[in-house]
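ok posting inputs for the adenosine-5'-triphosphate job
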Amino acid sequence: MTISLDTIVNLSKRRGFVFQSSEIYGGLRSAYDYGPLGVELLRNVKNEWWRSMVQLRGDIVGLDSAILQARDVWVASGHEASFTDPLVQCSNCNSRFRLDKLDDQDLCPSCGNRKTFGEPRQFNLMFKTFMGPVDDETGLVYLRPETAQGIFINYDNVRRAARKKLPFGIAQMGKSFRNEITPGQFVFRTREFEQMEMEFFCRPEEAGRWYEHWTKDRYQWYLDLGMSEDNLRIRPHGHDELAHYAAACSDVEYRYPWGWDELEGIANRTDFDLKAHSEHSGTDLSYYDDETDERFYPYVIEPAAGATRTTFAFLMDAYHEEEVRGEQRVVLKIHPKLAPFKVAVLPLSKKPELVGEAEKVADLLRPHFLIDFDVTQSIGRRYRRQDEIGTPYAVTFDFDSLEDRAVTVRDRDTMEQDRIPVENLVRYLAERLP
Ligand code: ATP
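and the output
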Protein backbone atom coordinates (compact mmCIF):
# COMPACT_ATOMS: atom_id res chain seq x y z
CA MET A 1 0.00 0.00 0.00
CA THR A 2 1.14 3.56 -0.58
CA ILE A 3 1.04 5.82 2.41
CA SER A 4 1.63 9.51 2.50
CA LEU A 5 4.51 11.17 4.26
CA ASP A 6 1.97 13.18 6.31
CA THR A 7 0.54 9.98 7.74
CA ILE A 8 3.95 9.01 9.14
CA VAL A 9 4.76 12.52 10.32
CA ASN A 10 1.43 12.68 12.20
CA LEU A 11 1.82 9.25 13.73
CA SER A 12 5.38 10.09 14.75
CA LYS A 13 4.36 13.20 16.59
CA ARG A 14 1.13 11.89 18.11
CA ARG A 15 2.63 8.71 19.47
CA GLY A 16 6.06 10.07 20.40
CA PHE A 17 8.39 8.69 17.76
CA VAL A 18 9.81 11.93 16.36
CA PHE A 19 9.28 15.59 17.26
CA GLN A 20 10.42 18.71 15.45
CA SER A 21 13.49 20.12 17.16
CA SER A 22 12.90 23.34 19.17
CA GLU A 23 9.19 23.12 18.44
CA ILE A 24 8.10 25.54 21.17
CA TYR A 25 10.35 28.19 19.53
CA GLY A 26 8.81 27.68 16.13
CA GLY A 27 10.96 24.70 15.19
CA LEU A 28 14.51 24.38 13.89
CA ARG A 29 14.30 23.14 10.36
CA SER A 30 16.05 19.88 9.54
CA ALA A 31 16.80 18.75 13.07
CA TYR A 32 14.58 16.32 14.96
CA ASP A 33 14.17 14.91 18.45
CA TYR A 34 13.38 11.27 19.06
CA GLY A 35 10.60 10.72 21.61
CA PRO A 36 10.01 7.79 23.98
CA LEU A 37 9.08 5.37 21.18
CA GLY A 38 11.46 6.78 18.58
CA VAL A 39 14.45 6.45 20.85
CA GLU A 40 13.66 2.76 21.35
CA LEU A 41 13.11 2.12 17.65
CA LEU A 42 16.28 3.96 16.65
CA ARG A 43 18.28 2.14 19.32
CA ASN A 44 16.89 -1.24 18.21
CA VAL A 45 17.87 -0.50 14.60
CA LYS A 46 21.39 0.43 15.71
CA ASN A 47 21.65 -2.61 17.99
CA GLU A 48 20.63 -4.93 15.15
CA TRP A 49 23.20 -3.36 12.86
CA TRP A 50 25.90 -3.70 15.53
CA ARG A 51 24.89 -7.27 16.26
CA SER A 52 25.10 -8.27 12.60
CA MET A 53 28.36 -6.38 12.02
CA VAL A 54 30.28 -6.98 15.23
CA GLN A 55 28.71 -9.63 17.44
CA LEU A 56 27.95 -12.25 14.80
CA ARG A 57 31.32 -11.98 13.02
CA GLY A 58 34.82 -12.53 14.26
CA ASP A 59 36.49 -10.17 11.80
CA ILE A 60 34.92 -6.78 12.65
CA VAL A 61 35.57 -4.67 15.73
CA GLY A 62 33.93 -1.48 16.94
CA LEU A 63 35.04 2.12 17.38
CA ASP A 64 33.56 5.37 18.67
CA SER A 65 35.71 8.23 17.45
CA ALA A 66 35.25 11.90 18.27
CA ILE A 67 32.91 14.17 16.30
CA LEU A 68 35.59 16.87 16.37
CA GLN A 69 38.79 15.89 14.59
CA ALA A 70 41.84 17.77 13.42
CA ARG A 71 41.10 20.01 10.44
CA ASP A 72 43.89 18.18 8.57
CA VAL A 73 41.73 15.05 8.49
CA TRP A 74 39.28 16.83 6.20
CA VAL A 75 42.03 18.37 4.12
CA ALA A 76 43.55 14.93 3.51
CA SER A 77 40.22 13.22 2.81
CA GLY A 78 39.35 15.85 0.21
CA HIS A 79 36.28 17.08 2.10
CA GLU A 80 37.56 20.62 2.65
CA ALA A 81 38.18 21.09 -1.05
CA SER A 82 35.35 19.13 -2.53
CA PHE A 83 32.62 17.95 -0.16
CA THR A 84 30.28 20.21 -2.02
CA ASP A 85 26.91 20.21 -3.73
CA PRO A 86 26.01 22.46 -6.66
CA LEU A 87 23.88 25.33 -5.34
CA VAL A 88 21.63 27.49 -7.52
CA GLN A 89 19.59 30.50 -6.49
CA CYS A 90 16.40 31.72 -8.14
CA SER A 91 16.73 35.37 -9.15
CA ASN A 92 12.96 35.79 -8.83
CA CYS A 93 12.20 34.44 -5.34
CA ASN A 94 15.75 33.98 -3.96
CA SER A 95 15.10 30.33 -3.01
CA ARG A 96 18.15 28.09 -3.10
CA PHE A 97 18.28 24.56 -4.43
CA ARG A 98 20.66 21.69 -4.93
CA LEU A 99 20.92 21.57 -8.72
CA ASP A 100 21.49 17.82 -9.05
CA LYS A 101 18.29 17.06 -7.11
CA LEU A 102 15.99 19.17 -9.30
CA ASP A 103 13.70 17.26 -11.68
CA ASP A 104 13.86 20.15 -14.16
CA GLN A 105 17.07 22.17 -13.87
CA ASP A 106 15.46 25.27 -15.45
CA LEU A 107 12.32 25.42 -13.34
CA CYS A 108 12.20 26.98 -9.86
CA PRO A 109 10.14 24.58 -7.67
CA SER A 110 9.32 27.43 -5.31
CA CYS A 111 7.91 30.21 -7.56
CA GLY A 112 7.47 28.22 -10.78
CA ASN A 113 9.48 30.67 -12.92
CA ARG A 114 11.74 29.38 -15.70
CA LYS A 115 15.36 30.25 -16.47
CA THR A 116 15.79 32.16 -13.23
CA PHE A 117 18.84 30.27 -11.97
CA GLY A 118 22.30 31.79 -12.20
CA GLU A 119 25.50 29.76 -12.55
CA PRO A 120 25.73 26.96 -9.93
CA ARG A 121 28.14 27.58 -7.08
CA GLN A 122 29.89 24.75 -5.22
CA PHE A 123 28.64 24.87 -1.64
CA ASN A 124 30.66 23.07 1.06
CA LEU A 125 28.40 21.01 3.32
CA MET A 126 30.64 20.88 6.38
CA PHE A 127 29.56 22.74 9.51
CA LYS A 128 32.28 24.95 10.92
CA THR A 129 32.96 25.73 14.52
CA PHE A 130 35.89 27.08 16.54
CA MET A 131 37.85 25.25 19.17
CA GLY A 132 39.13 27.27 22.09
CA PRO A 133 38.40 30.87 23.02
CA VAL A 134 39.48 32.52 19.74
CA ASP A 135 37.07 32.80 16.81
CA ASP A 136 39.58 32.70 14.01
CA GLU A 137 40.94 30.35 11.40
CA THR A 138 43.54 28.88 13.77
CA GLY A 139 40.80 27.31 15.86
CA LEU A 140 38.66 26.19 12.91
CA VAL A 141 37.29 22.67 13.17
CA TYR A 142 34.45 20.91 11.39
CA LEU A 143 31.64 18.77 12.75
CA ARG A 144 32.25 15.46 11.01
CA PRO A 145 30.10 14.98 7.90
CA GLU A 146 30.63 11.19 8.03
CA THR A 147 31.91 8.72 10.60
CA ALA A 148 34.22 6.99 8.11
CA GLN A 149 37.25 9.27 8.46
CA GLY A 150 37.34 8.61 12.21
CA ILE A 151 37.85 4.97 11.27
CA PHE A 152 40.64 5.61 8.75
CA ILE A 153 42.65 7.76 11.13
CA ASN A 154 42.37 5.04 13.78
CA TYR A 155 43.09 2.19 11.37
CA ASP A 156 46.56 1.52 12.74
CA ASN A 157 45.56 1.96 16.40
CA VAL A 158 42.78 -0.56 16.00
CA ARG A 159 44.78 -3.02 13.89
CA ARG A 160 47.55 -3.13 16.46
CA ALA A 161 45.37 -3.11 19.60
CA ALA A 162 42.94 -5.75 18.30
CA ARG A 163 45.81 -7.71 16.61
CA LYS A 164 43.88 -7.95 13.34
CA LYS A 165 45.12 -9.31 10.04
CA LEU A 166 43.51 -8.71 6.68
CA PRO A 167 40.70 -9.00 5.94
CA PHE A 168 39.07 -7.21 8.87
CA GLY A 169 36.60 -4.42 9.46
CA ILE A 170 35.96 -1.51 11.83
CA ALA A 171 32.37 -0.53 12.58
CA GLN A 172 31.11 2.75 13.95
CA MET A 173 27.75 4.39 14.56
CA GLY A 174 27.16 7.98 15.53
CA LYS A 175 26.14 11.50 14.69
CA SER A 176 27.16 13.23 11.49
CA PHE A 177 26.39 16.75 10.32
CA ARG A 178 25.90 18.17 6.84
CA ASN A 179 24.71 21.63 6.03
CA GLU A 180 22.37 20.26 3.35
CA ILE A 181 21.12 22.79 0.82
CA THR A 182 17.68 21.23 0.64
CA PRO A 183 16.92 19.14 3.71
CA GLY A 184 13.49 17.62 3.76
CA GLN A 185 11.13 14.69 3.52
CA PHE A 186 10.97 14.55 7.31
CA VAL A 187 14.01 12.72 8.74
CA PHE A 188 15.12 11.41 5.34
CA ARG A 189 17.52 14.32 4.81
CA THR A 190 18.44 16.35 7.87
CA ARG A 191 21.40 18.48 8.85
CA GLU A 192 22.11 16.44 11.98
CA PHE A 193 21.68 12.69 11.59
CA GLU A 194 23.12 9.35 12.62
CA GLN A 195 25.13 6.99 10.50
CA MET A 196 26.16 3.34 10.75
CA GLU A 197 29.34 2.76 8.77
CA MET A 198 31.78 -0.09 8.46
CA GLU A 199 35.14 0.00 6.69
CA PHE A 200 36.28 -3.45 5.61
CA PHE A 201 40.02 -3.64 4.85
CA CYS A 202 41.19 -6.33 2.44
CA ARG A 203 43.86 -7.24 -0.13
CA PRO A 204 43.37 -5.26 -3.36
CA GLU A 205 42.77 -8.36 -5.45
CA GLU A 206 39.99 -9.47 -3.08
CA ALA A 207 38.15 -6.14 -3.10
CA GLY A 208 35.78 -7.11 -5.93
CA ARG A 209 34.66 -10.23 -4.11
CA TRP A 210 34.13 -8.39 -0.82
CA TYR A 211 32.20 -5.64 -2.58
CA GLU A 212 29.79 -8.26 -3.97
CA HIS A 213 29.59 -9.88 -0.55
CA TRP A 214 28.73 -6.68 1.32
CA THR A 215 26.23 -5.51 -1.27
CA LYS A 216 24.26 -8.74 -0.94
CA ASP A 217 24.71 -8.93 2.83
CA ARG A 218 23.43 -5.42 3.46
CA TYR A 219 20.40 -5.90 1.20
CA GLN A 220 19.57 -9.10 3.07
CA TRP A 221 19.81 -7.34 6.46
CA TYR A 222 16.78 -5.19 5.64
CA LEU A 223 14.81 -8.22 4.44
CA ASP A 224 15.70 -10.21 7.56
CA LEU A 225 14.30 -7.39 9.66
CA GLY A 226 11.01 -7.62 7.83
CA MET A 227 11.28 -4.92 5.18
CA SER A 228 9.11 -5.73 2.21
CA GLU A 229 11.02 -7.04 -0.82
CA ASP A 230 8.77 -5.00 -3.14
CA ASN A 231 10.07 -1.79 -1.55
CA LEU A 232 13.75 -2.64 -1.65
CA ARG A 233 16.24 -2.79 -4.49
CA ILE A 234 19.95 -2.59 -5.25
CA ARG A 235 20.98 0.07 -7.77
CA PRO A 236 24.55 -0.06 -9.07
CA HIS A 237 25.96 3.39 -9.86
CA GLY A 238 26.88 4.29 -13.40
CA HIS A 239 30.51 5.34 -14.02
CA ASP A 240 29.52 9.02 -14.26
CA GLU A 241 28.02 8.87 -10.72
CA LEU A 242 31.06 7.41 -8.95
CA ALA A 243 32.98 9.52 -6.44
CA HIS A 244 36.56 10.17 -7.55
CA TYR A 245 37.94 7.63 -5.06
CA ALA A 246 35.46 4.83 -5.74
CA ALA A 247 35.96 1.88 -8.10
CA ALA A 248 32.36 0.74 -7.68
CA CYS A 249 29.28 1.74 -5.70
CA SER A 250 25.76 0.40 -5.26
CA ASP A 251 22.90 1.87 -3.32
CA VAL A 252 20.33 -0.09 -1.41
CA GLU A 253 17.22 1.88 -2.26
CA TYR A 254 13.80 2.06 -0.66
CA ARG A 255 10.54 2.96 -2.35
CA TYR A 256 9.58 6.12 -0.42
CA PRO A 257 6.29 7.96 -1.00
CA TRP A 258 8.21 10.19 -3.47
CA GLY A 259 9.84 7.26 -5.31
CA TRP A 260 13.02 5.17 -5.11
CA ASP A 261 15.75 6.82 -3.06
CA GLU A 262 18.87 5.88 -1.11
CA LEU A 263 18.93 3.99 2.16
CA GLU A 264 22.54 2.96 2.16
CA GLY A 265 25.58 3.02 -0.13
CA ILE A 266 28.14 0.24 -0.53
CA ALA A 267 31.37 1.49 -2.09
CA ASN A 268 34.72 0.09 -3.10
CA ARG A 269 36.84 3.04 -1.89
CA THR A 270 40.08 1.42 -3.14
CA ASP A 271 43.21 2.45 -1.21
CA PHE A 272 42.35 6.13 -1.53
CA ASP A 273 41.81 6.95 2.15
CA LEU A 274 44.73 5.10 3.73
CA LYS A 275 47.07 6.49 1.07
CA ALA A 276 45.77 10.03 1.49
CA HIS A 277 46.15 9.95 5.27
CA SER A 278 49.62 8.41 4.97
CA GLU A 279 50.72 11.18 2.63
CA HIS A 280 49.22 14.03 4.66
CA SER A 281 50.05 12.82 8.16
CA GLY A 282 53.45 11.31 7.46
CA THR A 283 52.34 8.12 9.29
CA ASP A 284 52.72 5.08 7.09
CA LEU A 285 49.38 3.27 7.02
CA SER A 286 50.48 0.55 4.59
CA TYR A 287 50.15 -3.09 5.57
CA TYR A 288 52.88 -5.66 5.82
CA ASP A 289 51.76 -9.20 5.06
CA ASP A 290 54.26 -11.45 6.81
CA GLU A 291 53.01 -14.56 5.04
CA THR A 292 53.72 -13.24 1.54
CA ASP A 293 56.39 -10.72 2.58
CA GLU A 294 54.57 -7.91 0.76
CA ARG A 295 53.82 -4.32 1.75
CA PHE A 296 50.78 -2.58 0.25
CA TYR A 297 47.81 -0.32 1.03
CA PRO A 298 44.67 -2.32 1.78
CA TYR A 299 41.54 -1.68 -0.26
CA VAL A 300 38.39 -0.69 1.58
CA ILE A 301 34.80 -1.78 1.08
CA GLU A 302 32.39 0.51 2.87
CA PRO A 303 28.72 -0.16 3.63
CA ALA A 304 27.48 3.27 4.81
CA ALA A 305 23.93 3.46 6.13
CA GLY A 306 21.92 6.16 7.84
CA ALA A 307 20.54 5.09 11.22
CA THR A 308 17.89 7.79 11.32
CA ARG A 309 16.97 7.35 7.65
CA THR A 310 16.75 3.58 8.09
CA THR A 311 14.57 3.94 11.19
CA PHE A 312 12.22 6.12 9.16
CA ALA A 313 12.09 3.52 6.36
CA PHE A 314 11.32 0.70 8.81
CA LEU A 315 8.54 2.81 10.34
CA MET A 316 7.04 3.56 6.95
CA ASP A 317 7.33 0.00 5.71
CA ALA A 318 5.61 -1.39 8.80
CA TYR A 319 2.63 0.97 8.61
CA HIS A 320 -0.58 -0.81 7.56
CA GLU A 321 -4.23 0.10 7.51
CA GLU A 322 -6.65 -2.82 7.51
CA GLU A 323 -10.33 -3.39 7.94
CA VAL A 324 -11.26 -5.65 10.83
CA ARG A 325 -14.96 -6.48 11.34
CA GLY A 326 -16.03 -3.29 9.61
CA GLU A 327 -13.61 -1.09 11.56
CA GLN A 328 -10.37 0.41 10.39
CA ARG A 329 -7.27 -0.75 12.22
CA VAL A 330 -3.85 0.87 11.96
CA VAL A 331 -1.11 -1.60 12.72
CA LEU A 332 2.66 -1.28 12.65
CA LYS A 333 3.76 -4.70 11.52
CA ILE A 334 7.26 -4.04 12.63
CA HIS A 335 9.73 -6.85 13.28
CA PRO A 336 9.57 -7.79 17.00
CA LYS A 337 13.32 -7.11 17.27
CA LEU A 338 12.68 -3.50 16.30
CA ALA A 339 9.36 -2.93 18.10
CA PRO A 340 9.70 -0.24 20.81
CA PHE A 341 7.63 -2.13 23.40
CA LYS A 342 7.69 -5.91 23.23
CA VAL A 343 4.68 -6.49 25.49
CA ALA A 344 1.80 -4.39 26.81
CA VAL A 345 0.18 -5.37 30.10
CA LEU A 346 -3.46 -4.31 30.27
CA PRO A 347 -5.68 -4.81 33.33
CA LEU A 348 -9.22 -5.32 32.03
CA SER A 349 -10.64 -2.67 34.32
CA LYS A 350 -9.39 0.09 36.58
CA LYS A 351 -10.49 -1.81 39.71
CA PRO A 352 -7.58 -1.57 42.16
CA GLU A 353 -7.43 -5.33 42.77
CA LEU A 354 -6.97 -5.95 39.03
CA VAL A 355 -4.50 -3.11 38.53
CA GLY A 356 -2.42 -4.24 41.50
CA GLU A 357 -2.22 -7.83 40.27
CA ALA A 358 -1.54 -6.74 36.68
CA GLU A 359 1.34 -4.60 37.98
CA LYS A 360 2.83 -7.75 39.47
CA VAL A 361 2.64 -9.43 36.05
CA ALA A 362 4.36 -6.40 34.51
CA ASP A 363 7.11 -6.61 37.15
CA LEU A 364 7.57 -10.27 36.30
CA LEU A 365 8.13 -9.38 32.65
CA ARG A 366 10.22 -6.22 33.05
CA PRO A 367 13.62 -7.89 33.50
CA HIS A 368 13.07 -9.64 30.16
CA PHE A 369 11.21 -7.21 27.89
CA LEU A 370 10.41 -3.51 27.58
CA ILE A 371 6.84 -3.27 28.86
CA ASP A 372 4.05 -0.76 28.41
CA PHE A 373 1.37 -0.65 31.08
CA ASP A 374 -1.96 0.91 30.12
CA VAL A 375 -5.13 1.19 32.19
CA THR A 376 -7.07 3.93 30.42
CA GLN A 377 -10.13 3.43 28.18
CA SER A 378 -11.79 0.28 26.85
CA ILE A 379 -9.72 -2.81 26.18
CA GLY A 380 -10.55 -2.58 22.45
CA ARG A 381 -9.12 0.92 22.24
CA ARG A 382 -6.05 -0.10 24.16
CA TYR A 383 -5.43 -2.98 21.73
CA ARG A 384 -5.72 -0.50 18.84
CA ARG A 385 -3.25 1.82 20.51
CA GLN A 386 -0.74 -0.97 20.93
CA ASP A 387 -1.30 -2.08 17.31
CA GLU A 388 -0.56 1.43 16.14
CA ILE A 389 2.83 1.47 17.87
CA GLY A 390 3.70 -2.08 16.85
CA THR A 391 3.68 -3.86 20.24
CA PRO A 392 3.86 -7.57 19.29
CA TYR A 393 1.97 -8.93 22.32
CA ALA A 394 -0.72 -7.61 24.65
CA VAL A 395 -1.30 -9.39 27.95
CA THR A 396 -4.72 -8.82 29.50
CA PHE A 397 -5.34 -9.45 33.15
CA ASP A 398 -9.08 -9.98 33.72
CA PHE A 399 -11.34 -10.99 36.61
CA ASP A 400 -10.86 -14.70 35.87
CA SER A 401 -7.12 -14.13 36.18
CA LEU A 402 -7.63 -13.49 39.90
CA GLU A 403 -8.95 -17.05 40.19
CA ASP A 404 -7.09 -19.10 37.57
CA ARG A 405 -3.74 -17.19 37.60
CA ALA A 406 -3.81 -17.13 33.81
CA VAL A 407 -3.83 -14.20 31.36
CA THR A 408 -4.90 -13.65 27.77
CA VAL A 409 -2.08 -13.04 25.33
CA ARG A 410 -3.07 -11.36 22.07
CA ASP A 411 -0.88 -11.48 18.98
CA ARG A 412 -0.62 -8.12 17.15
CA ASP A 413 -0.63 -9.52 13.62
CA THR A 414 -3.11 -12.42 13.81
CA MET A 415 -5.14 -10.89 16.67
CA GLU A 416 -5.47 -14.45 17.99
CA GLN A 417 -5.64 -14.90 21.74
CA ASP A 418 -4.14 -17.60 23.95
CA ARG A 419 -4.84 -18.21 27.61
CA ILE A 420 -1.51 -18.69 29.36
CA PRO A 421 -0.78 -19.44 33.05
CA VAL A 422 1.17 -16.55 34.58
CA GLU A 423 3.90 -18.93 35.70
CA ASN A 424 4.54 -19.87 32.03
CA LEU A 425 4.25 -16.35 30.66
CA VAL A 426 7.94 -15.41 30.48
CA ARG A 427 8.77 -18.65 28.67
CA TYR A 428 5.80 -18.31 26.30
CA LEU A 429 6.81 -14.79 25.30
CA ALA A 430 10.54 -15.53 25.16
CA GLU A 431 9.87 -18.32 22.66
CA ARG A 432 8.03 -15.89 20.42
CA LEU A 433 10.11 -12.76 20.83
CA PRO A 434 13.54 -13.09 19.22
P1 ATP B 1 22.93 12.04 -0.91
O1 ATP B 1 23.47 11.79 -2.28
O2 ATP B 1 21.49 11.59 -0.74
O3 ATP B 1 23.19 13.39 -0.36
P2 ATP B 1 25.17 10.56 -0.03
O4 ATP B 1 25.24 9.56 -1.14
O5 ATP B 1 26.07 11.71 0.01
O6 ATP B 1 23.67 11.05 0.11
P3 ATP B 1 26.58 9.04 1.88
O7 ATP B 1 27.66 10.00 2.01
O8 ATP B 1 26.81 7.80 1.07
O9 ATP B 1 25.26 9.76 1.34
O10 ATP B 1 26.07 8.67 3.33
C1 ATP B 1 25.77 7.35 3.73
C2 ATP B 1 24.37 7.27 4.30
O11 ATP B 1 24.18 8.26 5.31
C3 ATP B 1 23.26 7.56 3.29
O12 ATP B 1 22.94 6.40 2.56
C4 ATP B 1 22.12 7.98 4.19
O13 ATP B 1 21.43 6.84 4.71
C5 ATP B 1 22.82 8.67 5.32
N1 ATP B 1 22.75 10.13 5.11
C6 ATP B 1 23.56 10.90 4.36
N2 ATP B 1 23.19 12.19 4.41
C7 ATP B 1 22.10 12.24 5.22
C8 ATP B 1 21.26 13.29 5.69
N3 ATP B 1 21.47 14.55 5.34
N4 ATP B 1 20.23 12.97 6.52
C9 ATP B 1 20.01 11.70 6.90
N5 ATP B 1 20.77 10.67 6.50
C10 ATP B 1 21.81 10.91 5.68
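notes: The two ends are 27 Å apart (CA to CA). The first helix runs from residue 5 to 15.
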